[in-house]
Write a structure and sequence with these properties.
Number of helices: 5
Strand content: 5-15%
Shape: rod-shaped
Strand order of the largest sheet: 1-2
Length: about 110
C-alpha cells in the first residue's frame, strides 16, 4: 500500500475531450497535438500546413483575379500546380485530424 505522501504527490490526470481536440485540429491542424501536449509533432504540422495554405492561396486565389477596365475578372487557373497544393494541404489536414483522434484515445485509455 502506498503512503499518503506518495498519494499526495501523484499528479491527477483528467480525461481529454475528443470534441475539443478535434475542433482545435479542424480550425488549425497541429493545435490538437498541442492540446495533447505533443509540441514536437504539433508545431511542425502547423508550420507545414501554413506554408501549404500560403502557396495554395497565392496560386489558386490571387492568381485567379485580374483587374480590367470594367472591374475584376475571375479566371480559374488552368495549370495543375494550384490544385496539387490544395490536395496536399487537405491531406495534411486529414492526417492531423486522424492523429489527434488517435492521441486522445490512447491518452484516455491509459488513465
Amino acid at each position: 500500500m502506498r503512503s499518503d505522501r506518495e498519494a499526495m504527490t501523484e499528479q491527477i490526470k483528467f480525461r481529454k475531450s475528443d470534441a475539443v481536440a478535434l475542433l482545435f485540429s479542424i480550425f488549425l491542424p497541429g493545435m490538437g497535438q498541442l492540446y495533447m501536449d505533443r509540441m514536437k509533432v504539433g508545431v511542425p504540422i502547423m508550420i507545414v500546413w501554413m506554408v501549404l495554405a500560403f502557396f495554395t492561396f497565392d496560386n489558386l486565389v490571387l492568381e485567379s483575379f485580374e483587374l480590367t477596365a470594367y472591374g475584376y475578372r475571375i479566371d480559374p487557373p488552368t495549370e495543375l500546380a494550384p490544385y496539387l497544393w490544395l490536395t496536399v494541404m487537405v491531406a495534411v489536414w486529414l492526417v492531423a485530424l486522424v492523429h489527434t483522434k488517435t492521441l486522445v484515445d490512447g491518452y484516455n485509455e491509459n488513465l
